[in-house]
Amino acid sequence: MLPFEFDYFKPATLKEAVDLYQYLDKGGKKPMFFSGGTELITLGRIELAYTEAVIDIKDIPESKVMRVSADHLLLGSTLSLTEIEEANLFPLLTKTSSEVADHTARGKITLGGNICARIFYREAVLPFLLADSKVLIIGPEGKKVVPINDIFQEQLQLKKGELLVQLATESQFIAAPFISIKRRQQWDTGYPLITVAALKLGQEIRVAISGLCPFPFRSKELESSLNNKELPLSQRITDALAKLPKPILDDVEGSAEYRLFVLRNVLSDVCSALAPVGS
C-alpha cells in the first residue's frame, strides 16, 4: 500500500491527457503520468515519489502502436516489455529488455516507463541510443519529433507536462548484427552490475552501457577508441575506458574498480563477437 491517496484519471486522447495535466498542476495536485505504475508503487512506498493525481495513459491508442513499415519500426511508449519481447520486431531490444527484472514484472513495466524511470539501469533505452531512433513527444506546446540522442542526456529531458508517446527506428539498425551482455554480481539473480548493448553498422561497433554510471549512456568518444583498428584490442579497450563519463557507481552491488574490471571483459567479448580477429 502507498502511504498517500491520489485521484485517478484515465483520458482517452493525448490532448485530454496534456490538458488534464495542466489543469491538475495549476491546482497544486502534483500530477503524474502513469502507464505501468511500477515506479510509483516502488518509490512511493519509500517516500521517494508522491502525487495527488495519477493520469493513466496506457490505453491511449497512439501510445500502444506496434507497427512495421518499409523503413521504420514504430513502438508506443505504453507497450509492456513482455509485449515487445513476444513480438520480437527489434531483436536487440528484445534481448536487452527480456533481462529487465523478472517475467511477472515485465508484464507491467512499459517501454516508456523504463526509459523515463528514475532508477539507474533503464536498459530498454540502450538499443534506441545505438539506433539513432527518434522520439515523439507531446506536451503543452504540441507534438515534436526529436532524435533520442539529442534529448536523452542522462535521462529523457522532458519539460513539465510532456510525455513520451512513440519511438521510431530505421530498419537498417534493426537488421544490424548485435550483441547484448548482462553481468550480475550473483550469477543469474540479483540486480544487474553491467549491461552492454552493441551493434555493428558497416565496420563500426556502437556501444551503449547501463549500470556503470547512475545513468545509461552511449559515448561516441568511447566508440572512436574502440574502433581504432591501428591499435591492438587491449589498447583500444584501455583507451575506451579512459573516455567514460563520471561518476562510476560504487555501492553494495559492486565497487567502481570491480565494475571497470567487468566492463573491460565485456567490451572484449563484444569486440570478439562483432569484429573477430581477421574479419
Can you describe this structure?
The protein has helices at 14-26, 38-45, 81-87, 91-97, 103-106, 111-115, 126-130, 148-151, 171-174, 220-226, 233-241, 256-274, and strands at 7-9, 32-34, 53-56, 66-68, 72-76, 134-139, 142-147, 152-153, 155-156, 163-170, 178-186, 189-201, 204-210, 217-218. Strand 2 (32-34), helix 2 and strand 3 form a beta-alpha-beta unit. It has three domains: 7-56, Uridine Diphospho-n-acetylenolpyruvylglucosamine Reductase, domain 2 (2-Layer Sandwich); 61-174, Uridine Diphospho-n-acetylenolpyruvylglucosamine Reductase, domain 3, CATH 3.30.465; 178-274, CO dehydrogenase flavoprotein, C-terminal domain (Enolase-like, domain 1). Helix 3 (81-87) packs across helix 4 (91-97), helix 10 (220-226) runs antiparallel to helix 11 (233-241) and helix 11 packs across helix 12. The radius of gyration is 19 Å and the shape is globular. It is 33% helix and 26% strand. By secondary structure, it is α+β, with helices and mostly antiparallel strands. The model has no long low-confidence stretch (mean pLDDT 90).
